[in-house]
Write a structure and sequence with these properties.
The protein starts with a helix and ends in a 16-residue tail after the last strand. Strands 8-7-9-10-23-22-19 form a seven-stranded mixed sheet, with helices on one face. A four-stranded mixed sheet has the order 2-1-5-6, with helices on one face. A three-stranded antiparallel sheet has the order 11-12-21, with no helix packed on it. It has 420 residues and is an alpha+beta fold.
Length: 420
Amino acid sequence: MKSNKSSYLLYFIYFSAFILINLISMNYFKRIDLTDNKMYSLSDSSKSTIDKIDDPLIIDLYFSDDLPGQLQNNRRYIQDILEEYAAYSNYINFYFIKNDENFSSKAQSEGLQSQDIQVIENDEVTFKTIFMGMKLRYNGKTEILPMLGVSAGLEYTLTRTIKKLIVDKQNTIAIGQAGTNSGAYENINTILAERFIINNNVALNNLNINNVDLLLLGNIEGDLTEEELAGLKSFLDNGGKLFLAQGKIRADIQTGQGVIKESNIYNFLDEYGLHIEDNLILDKNCKQLVARQQSGIFSIQRQIDYPFIPAIQEFKSYDNITTGLEGLQIIQIAFPSEITFTDSSNIDAFLPLLSTSENSATMSEFFSLGALPEVNPILNNLNESSKIIGSKLTLPSGGEIVLITDSDFFDDNSIANMRI
């Protein structure tokens, strides 16, 4: 009898615990991401953006019902990501538009374009017209996002679009003109113009902190004038933000050689403790290039790793700091040099942002850019520790310097284009 009472008591405890857990879960909801790379977990950058939403954000999803297998997987992945957004904010809601007789005309009237895809049915190749896209609506503003083939970078694209909808004031980005080199910046203009006011060819001796929220500079060749250096220093000392793409080695793929660049911009950076070494950093995790090899009368093409263009896939994170890199999948940096921070009294203000893997190598003095190990032995010795090739420095004035040691990072003609 005593044993039965104990059993009843045990059942009662289990039942009470079950009821208690369910009552708690009604008020506290948390999704658990069990994937290795946390592919369904929102980054801090996305959460920071979502926190600024103070009105309903409605997302209408236009997906055809009869999607082929892989596109069905993409639809499920997109739905999973959107569930993360909706779980984090009660202001976000998304809906799949019903596929009825008016579906196609409604999708087109809302600004979505149909896509013709090739499918195999009954051992025959046919073409099918489908819709895959979403319309975001917020405070009378709308944005259209095509979703065909989207997987990598979805969170970044979605958060960037939400930012565009919720920000009332457009910030101004100035693309500076300095030194003897003129870059081609049409692509970055097109991308940034979606969210920012862009001013091109801005002279450094004419910078106005009140009119420039971010200054972009890249691939400086030759010395800056005293007026340009003074203008840049004044901009930073008054809280200005600089994004500088500047490597130390000028690489020439045609000759297969690199030479050290000469400019007083490096002395300028040294004054802030940012030293760019006279070297090239290689990484086993890298971009692939197409190489042609002659075999008799035949020319053979094959994909080969090119360690001179590191592919960064892991980004440093810091407590209570949003770097803006959290939603990215990969960044490719061409012919980078190592960054050394020399101001030991201000070490807490220096944040490494981009670092190579633990399979790196350092090339110094003579810079041979050959892609094959048999002619470039260093490619067989990628065994050095991680090197910093991108960083952020916060100045006492509140100014900031973000430095990436790829001179062509902003340029349309970069060998590492399509890097993000």
